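Please predict the structure of the following assembly.
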Amino acid sequence: MTFTREGRELRALRGVDLAITPGEIVGLVGESGSGKTVLGLSTLGLLPKTAQIEGTVTVDGVEVNGADEATRRRLRRRSLGAVFQDPMTSLDPTMRIGRQVHEVAGSTAAVLHLLDAVGIPDAQRRLRDFPHELSGGLRQRVMLAIALAARPRLVIADEPTTALDVTVQAQVLTLFRQMRDEFGCAILLVTHDLGVASTVADRICVLYGGLISEIGAVRPVLDHPAHPYTAALMASRIGLDADRHSQLPIIAGEPVHPSSDIRGCNFAPRCPAATALCREQRPALAAVSQHDGLAACHFEAGQEVARRLSAVAGPWGTTTTASNEGGVSVRQLSVHFPGRRGLRRSKPFDALSEVDLSVAAGEAVALVGESGSGKTTLLRAIAGLQEPTSGSVTLGGRGRRPQMVFQDAGSSFTPWLTVGQHLEERVPHLPTAMRRERVSQALERLGLPAEVARVRAQQLSGGQRQRAALARAVIEPPDLLLCDEPISALDASLAATVLNLLGRLRRELGFAMVFVTHDLAAARLVADRIIVMTRGRIVEVGASDTVIGQPSNPYTQSLLASVPEVATCR
Amino acid sequence: MLRFLAVRALGALGVLVALVTAVFVLQTAVPGDPVRASVGLNASDEVVAQERERLGLDKPLPTQYVGYLGQAVQGSFGESLRTGRDVRDDIGAFLPATIELAGFSILLAGAGGLLIGILAVVSSRFAAPARVLFVGGASVPSFLLALILIYVFYFKLSWLPLSGRTNLDSAPEGPTGLLLVDSLLHVRLDVFVDALRHLILPATALALVPAVAIGRVLRSSLIEVYRADYIRTLHAKGLTPRAVLWKHALRNALSAPLTMAGLQLGLLLGGVVIVEAIFAWPGIGLYLNQSIQFGDLRAIAGVTLVVGAGYVFVNTLVDLAQAAADPRIRL
């Protein structure tokens, strides 16, 4: 599968063979840019017309690739279903959900049966709801009802739970298995989350740089990975049981760029066990000794690589003694949104109710909760970006404004300024030569090459962009760093890299940190204390290991129970 | 919804009062003496003073203003200096022709905008002519377009009539005053066709600019909708491109073009005044033209009020249409 963009050929897939048997759930795992979404879309015949596809995709006896548009449409209508990532944007906002299901189901009775089957309570009443009147979880259930309406042979689910809260994610994943049992359809589950894949899938297929690295039954592959990349993914996975006192084992280097030409193994540039053979000759997907599946590695070096990565990931460096400066104290803070009147009306909403919080200098605190819990509002109030309705925010020490790192690093850069210009803006008082010097120091600190200063943010990869955003935050070391879901848009290996960087930076520079996340495992790794929020209130505060190990609040317990975990050999 | 309409009605009232005030203030700034003109230039000063007193024009302006508002509430706009009749009756006589022209133009603008916008997106052959139309159509003022249309279709080709509403003497009268409707009610197809032929040139002159503006906004809004995630869902459901467009994409793309329509249709009502003068269309625009030349303030104020009310009415319809198209907007 090749795209041509601005005259350059981008190879999204480089020769993939995959067969899915009826009734089987296959988890397709890989980092962003690995080609997993493209594989899903090509099965649906929904790739843009500019895509050049070699090879065949056969669904239910029909070849998709060579077929005309009408044949493909018939195939999608009868044999295929699709569930996409963001349930907020994947349904037509101007049509009642009953009609949207009806377009495929054909009769109201069938619609009711489907909505019932996917667990939508009081389906009869919900028929006339518009998508915006449903929660994210319910919308994703509607998507699933649409996907299943024609009793398809295969459902393509592309990151179906990534946009959902953990508790909802657990329910939707369970639903996938139930639906497979009830409707007998096969499911191709595209995800970057090993935990999600291992909860639901029968088989797992690991994609890297447009090629299959490893494929086989879920448990054996994850327990005894034969391919170094699978092993590295498992090692850098942020689990609830990870060691807090050392850095996460991570794979160095950048993912394969789709425009690059590779002769040997596509993972060789990043593989610690790579030899001359790996760089010269591409390994075939072949049977391995570790499990019954297949892997593409000359040396079946999975175990070996896992060992080396863990050995390299040392303990954290020495901690700078925190000064008395920094930290923040929040007293009785409330934020109330009165609700808009007029054409686009909304209900009044208490985002925060009388919240007390203090963060000591040099301390790292994680705010954990589901969407709507008020965690981001609290962070924005501390940053001074949200005017509180009542209560106060007092910054410690010199009272310097805190720095902030956002979830979407790309949109936090002005598109026409270079990364260097963004960084220089933070140190305007210095003479030009010193500013340049500071910029290159900051980039180096974050492990970015000096050339990054001269390019614009959108020319960087997702991981590089988030690191550039971090460089901007620490070029002038802040007293307090505020992070709003900085890793939730990144896949496992990049997320681990960012967590390592944050851990190192705060120890080196001694700043306090407030880290907003919905990911309990990441919270535990990054923070000294965890604060659990729901509905604008704090329900639990404690040392990280205590909150995760012995949660006292029922809400915290339900959050923990919903985290999809991979039981590992470690 | 009811609340929205109530707020709108109050707002309309505010707009109308403001319009009347503006017209009254302008009166003090306008030179000339319409009363003397109406009784004749050779009339004695006493006669002029008497006439002025009879019309209540001798009182100070604020008193006149309050009196006018009081009359207006009771449905009378006062006596016209030029025609000697109540302005209300004059407008009543001229308004149907304007409603017919403006209404037809609005339909033409809406349908044209829809057509241009959709074709520019779905047809690759129309893409290039659409670009020319977008630039050309936006830069031609309606009076110039009117002259061009007359030159081509009347003068050169002789396809369409030059002026007026109909050439037939036996045109039926009432009950609506709209020739297209009345002719159908009286089953007079010849009148219907003749009225339609008279409508085409002035209506096109009025509708082209709004149609192009609406089409242009619809095009970009449709292109954006086609990039949305739910469109991919619809394709994945196996819907035909036609169903995707008509059942889903179009409704989602309507918001911005409707806003543009509200703006443009307001301007269209203003353009009526000029286009009616060019085509000798016997509507309130022509009436206004003549009244301005005479300095007939009460007639000017009356027409201003009617056009203002029409503007508020059209924009309320646009807002209602917007709410109907997008269920997330609640009025």
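Residues 68 and 77 of chain B are 7 Å apart (CA to CA). DSSP finds 14 helices and no strands in chain B.
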